[in-house]
Amino acid sequence: MPYLIDGHNVIGQMTSLQLDDPHDEAKLVLLLRSYSAQLGTKFHVVFDGGIPSGMSSLSTTRVKVYFASVESSADNAMRMLIKNITNAGSWMVVSSDHAIGSTAKRKGMKVMRAERFAEKLESMQDLAEKAQLENYVPETKTEPRLSREEVNEWLDIFDSED
């Protein structure tokens, strides 16, 4: 059964993740990847305020990650995804938003509150995985640094070509 998840709804209900963490989305995606591997199911998770919006590079074949545009919201993005899903009866929507739940139920989808899903997600994690998440910081690209000697070498090369 594939899941459509309101990401920030779930993060807000978890004890191991915090909404004020700048890496909260990446950490949830890591948990979903692990959960997906254990369950053999697919997850589609939607977050607010992505720049750029759309599918994220955090996505894998089993965990699709979407960011709503800054002009929109995760709720609007979820409603659009719900509207376009075929075979709706086989899907589970995870959100504590009543409007999202109602939209999903009208489409014939199952609905689970974010609190319940957060509990299930955290219960399957062992302490080692939680410790890894607490220390997780995504890799960042750094600008190359040149020593004063290297800068002078380049300046000599370019000055000699005049």
Q: What does this protein structure show overall?
A:
The structure is a single chain. With 162 residues, the protein is of the alpha/beta class. The chain has one domain (3-160). Helix content is 45%, strand content 14%. The protein has helices at residues 7-11, 24-39, 74-84, 98-107, 114-123, 127-134, 148-160; strands at 3-6, 43-47, 54-55, 63-67, 92-94, 110-112. It has a six-stranded mixed β-sheet. The protein is elongated.
Number of domains: 1
Please give the number of β-strands: 6
Q: Which percent band covers the strand fraction?
A: 5-15%
Supply the helix-strand structural class.
alpha/beta
Features:
single chain, 162 residues, alpha/beta, 7 helices, 6 strands
Please provide a brief summary of the model.
The chain is an alpha/beta fold and 162 residues long. The protein has helices at residues 7-11, 24-39, 74-84, 98-107, 114-123, 127-134, 148-160; strands spanning 3-6, 43-47, 54-55, 63-67, 92-94, 110-112.
